[in-house]
Amino acid sequence: MATDRDKDKSQFMVGTCLGMCPYAEVRLRQRERLIHPLEMAVNSNGNQLNYVQPRAMVKEFSRSAAGTEIKASDIRPVPVLVKTMKYLLTTVCLREDVSWALVYQFVSDRLRAIQQDLCVQGIKNTTCIHLYQAAVRFYAYAHYRTCEHDLCDFDPYLNKKHLTETLTLVVALFHEQDCQNKDTSFVDSRLFPDCCDEEIWNDSNDDTSESKIVQDARTTEKKFHRRTRKEGGISLRMSGDSCLDQNSSTGVTNSLRELSLANNSGGFADSEISSFSVPTGRTKECENKVISGYTFREEAEALYLLVNFGNEEVLMHAFQLQKKIRCSRLVSVAIKMNIAWLSCNYYRVLCLSSILPPLFLCAFHPHLTMIQRKALSILSIAHNSKGLVYKQEDLAAVLCFPSVQELNDACRHYGFTVLGGGIIFNKAAFNWNISMMKPLRVKWIEDKLAKMELSDLLLPNDLSL
Amino acid sequence: MAAMSVNDYLQRVQTAFYHQNGDVLGDLISFRDPHVMSLRLMLEKPERDVERCIDPLLAEVIAAHLRAVWAAGSGDCVEAWKTQMVVVQSVARFMQELKEENWMLPIMYSACLDLRLFASAADYDLTRSGASKAGETLEKAAEALMSCFRVCAADTRTGEDCTKRWGLLYLVNQFFKIYFKINKLNLCKPMIRAIEALAFKERFSLSQLITYKYYTGRKDMFDSDFKSADATLSFAFQRCHAGSRKNKRRILIYLIPVKMLRGYLPKQSVLERFNLPEFYDVVTSVRQGNVRLLSETLVKHESFFIGAGIYLILEKLKILAFRNLFKKVFLITGSHQIEVSLFLQSLKWMCVEDVDHDETECILANMINDGRMKGYISHAHRKVVVSKKDPFPPLTAC
Questions:
Q1: Nearest by CB to B134, which of A179, A313, A346?
Q2: pTM (predicted TM-score)
Q3: Membrane-spanning residues where (chain B) (predicted)?
Q4: What is the ipTM of this complex?
């Protein structure tokens, strides 16, 4: 890696900004009052004040324009970017005193600035890929979590665009690595803790201020924790929480811990091992085991397949991967899902999706409505008979609707008659012209997410050390 | 010829240019002509000699070519590719100068073909040494070809007999070869549009047309437009000269899956004649409805099918295998009301991975939806009621 850097020095600049936000920008935004609520100082009463809290400032994304010279003092080197990423994905994402929409808007903008800094410095090492991957994780998760929001809070098109762009980049970078070191490409990311960056980051003096922010956030988080639970938002336990909230979460933690002990099958990138039962009680052996333990490469390729679900070019790309990656459990499931969709086998697609880890479900979730609609249209032709009804409970289970209610809504939306005893399919009734249902958060994904800590979900392990 | 002197060579070029003989000139800057073996023509700096005898219009092209001969002679593909880029660019300028004439198209053909071949070799070398990404060199070559393409495409005012647009198809075929190699099929679209807009698109030479149809047929196939893929690939296969068996075989690799999807199975003798043993079991399994054999065959010849880019299409053939399997179930039961569990049994027998009732219904539903089976499913009774008349319509009708 050192040689890489030396080589790049000639072409690319190296950033010298040691804070999350360049000093010039802090001053500018203070002067122009362009301070995001999440960067504002808080007084002793917990009210936000309209001046900056310097350690909470994060560099804003700004489009690179012709004529503006990029200064090294505005660019953050990799260790600082790692720190910034960590701050955004743990501290900021866990804040529950502000609305998620605001958090989303803040983080997605700052992530783009991070990516811009990486790009300007022409860094292509493993840490850099992991930073991009962290961004991918956030986009995928946010796409799910924010899907019910209005367009003013969240633009699914833009988010999807950022997601696919970053993901494509990650896949391309991995591919480039493959090409460059054909011999060492088998040394996988799990053997790359990237020690040198870690050292720099541990030595840095900002460490204390960083942890202080985390503490701040934790106190606020604790304060608002109960409230949000009641509201029914996604409740995600923080590491310090189990002692605070004994009644509700210790049980789960314990059972989780037991499971992970019993099932110690080498978790590298992320290991969330949990038993999972489909709410509707489908009993297939494969469904009981959620995939766990996968490398960064596998994660990227699987996400690429799921985000671009149904895209044959992407599927062809997957076939050209090394056998070891292609046949890994995670990637092979993603490939199988895509292949099943070639023949519109919606049942198999949805079945397989149930063994995906939460992050991947989030990536797959946007396609769910499309699959359900297609399935209903197929069913409407295959079950076209006046005297017959399809029992709602059965169909809801097959199509992964969280409850009969949602299924009924969808059926009515697409033009079918819903009776007490079931749905009457009529091939003439299906309305292709009507717009697709707005995606909804689904209980079975929600359950899985609730079993996991958000910081674990979002932050790749080696960045979170 | 192999020891041709510079003066001799330049003399020939000048004469051919004087007579506007494109074919001879084309040979004279082609790397498939023996003159490139002449040590005396390998000149690093040929400009002075060339300018002395050659018309200034053409001088740039010839000088660039001689330099390329020198580079290729030294055995360095990367250098050869770079110099050939200059040749193509100067050919583009040369064509631009000669308005309302198209006799020089053969020159462009030779230059462009050589550029693609050199770029291919250079791409391989550069990728292996890690100096550039795979396909990058070819993409740069495509940019140079684009300069010729623009000159040809822009020549719209000239009459049909001497317009440079006659050169478009040859260029487009070169683009196809590059884009298929670097897997950027989306870039083919504007090329196809340019050709389809030509009034004389059917009157190109047959060899060029066949190449064109071969690639557009493949593209249609990837776009899942099987009807059009069938038509274009069939055209290519039927017109392709019986002597070029290698090309016929290449066409068949794509034509067979497309035809099969449309319900036509190839004869064993055809597969034998064109040496395509990989397809034997594919055909047998689809005919018998033997899903297990099809899955096994796909695994067995995986690398061949993936390499040819037809794996996904063959995966789609499973639907046909299911159809034939289910038809057998129907024929065995002899009833018009068949329990879903019977179909399930047949799927289990075919070792379909953890299949159950619901999935069987899903497969049946798809089959009815696609019109490959007539009838309806009763979920409550777990039965399929098939139509009295023509329950499994012939596949060629779908």
A1: A179
A2: 0.79
A3: none
A4: 0.83
